[in-house]
Amino acid sequence: MTNKLKQLLTPSLTRRGFIKSSSAIGGLAAATSAISLPFKSAHAETKSAPGDEKVVWSACTVNCGSRCPLRMHVVDGEIKWVDADNTGNDDYANKDVQVRACLRGRSMRRRVYNPDRLKYPMKRIGKRGEGKFKRISWDEAYTEIVNSLDHIKKEYGNEAIYLNYGTGTLGGTVTKSWPPGKSLIARLMNLTGGYLNHYGDYSTAQIAKGLSYTYGGWANGNSFSDTENSKLIVQFGNNPAETRMSGGGLIHHLIESKAKSNARMIMIDPRYNDTAAGHEDQWIPIKPGTDAAFIAAMAHVMIKEDLVDQEFLDKYCVGYDEKTLPTSAPANSDYKSYILGLGEDGIEKTPEWAAPITGIPADIIIKTAREIGSTKPCAIYQGWGLQRTQNGEIASRAIAMLALLTGNLVSMVVALVHVSRTTTFRLFVSLRLKTLSRPLSQCSCGLMRLFVGQK
Ligand code: SF4
Predict the structure, then answer these.
(1) 387: burial class by Cβ within 10 Å (0-12, 13-18, 19+)?
(2) Which residues span the membrane (predicted)?
């Protein structure tokens, strides 16, 4: 065991110390090369038959979004062990990095051969929920599906065929599963008369809906790598070190970009997360679900101290103050009035008001507002965790507002951004087989308080 690993496993380490240490050696994936884990012992197995071994390129298709390349070592059609990318020169500037998979990707063999994984068609023979199934052949399964589809179409119409999102696999190696409306099954359903699509999903339902009202769409922004041009990095609940952690994932962009810009980094998160990992200059713990109140109070400071980018707001935004609202808008329905307590709720969003709600002392709110309001360019990021709450749309829009207030829109990033080498797996099929973008019908919910872009 290496000294570094001993340090990592020493119980007396604090969480902060542990995170800092693991980050310093390139994460746990690097540390495990020194200890015995399943994929390492599987490696030893294959050495007995090296002549028969083939190495096949594949990819990690779990739904983290990075889609790292994997090298499957196959003997007699069976994956014996999994290896990571061994190409690239770690030349970040020229996008020639080695996309080293994390532990989740490296355990793909376990996923493929998991005894609980459905590997062949099963037909229910008991009552729904009873858990009784029998194995059937693929031919029987196709016949069952076709007959069932035909029956439903004739009896109820194509509107009764619902295509759900979420298979546990994202971005197949030879096909495409995202966005769901462009997958091969969607194309097949379109060719048979259409289907009922879903809206929202477990990852991004609130931010996708919320930012449509603010920006007209979501996931718009600069690449994460644009952080290298910023002087200040502000992250709200954004933790790619634990969510997109491979050699080509967002954490790699962040570390490389931050090293270049040497920008100050403020992490706002209830938890001291791995992305902070000793790289942060300030960690602001916040009560979960209160980001909007924190930002409203910072907006209050910025408005009172003339730190908002009025020129940007006047030119590009609707609804910051009354002069960009239509004449038909009710009095004091603009954002500024809402913050100053002149709006419908009559509450002035002062730092003292926000402090007990957020758990952040008023003086820290003031100091942070001054720093964000006076530093340009400032990169403002938000992760997806904070929008997975009852009022998640408002939290995501509040963070977008912070970028708008300070004229840092070009630095606003909420998108999944990949290193180009990690995305090549999904391209060729999608280019050949176009799917329609308009299924039969789509529902949407418009229950929102509108701040910016209100018409
Ligand atoms: S970072 Fe994501 S895509 Fe890459 S190996 Fe890990 S789980 Fe798989």
Answers:
(1) buried
(2) 398-419
Rounded CA separation 207/222 (Å) = 17
Output the CA 64–ligand 1 centroid distance in Å: 6
Higher-pLDDT residue of 133, 176:
133
Residue 35 alpha carbon to ligand 1 centre in Å: 20
Name the pLDDT band for 288 (thresholds 50, 70, 90). very high
- For residue range 374-385, what is the model confidence (pLDDT) as tens digits? 999 999 999 989
107 C-alpha to ligand 1 centroid (Å): 10
Of the two residues 298 and 188, the one the predictor is more confident about is 298
pLDDT tens track for 391-429:
899 999 999 999 999 998 754 433 333 222 332 222 222
Residues within 6 Å of ligand 1 by CB: 60, 62, 64, 66-68, 101-102, 104-105, 244-246, 249
List the beta bridge partners of residue 310: none
What burial letters (b/e) apply to 307-335, b meaning 16+ CB within 10 Å? bbbeebbeeebbbbbeebbeeeeeeebbb
4-39 pLDDT per residue, tens: 434 433 444 444 443 444 443 333 333 333 333 333
Ligand 1 geometric centre to CA of 336 (Å)? 42
Report the amino acid identity of residue 53: E
Mutate to test the pocket of ligand 1, among 64, 108, 239, 423 (most ligand atoms within 8 A of CB): 64
Give 435 Cα–ligand 1 centroid separation in angstroms. Answer: 27
Residue among 209, 187, 145, 169 at smallest CA distance from 61: 169
Read off the pTM: 0.76
| Atom number, ligand 1, closest to the C-alpha of residue 70 | 5
Residue nearest (by alpha carbon) to ligand 1 atom 4: 68
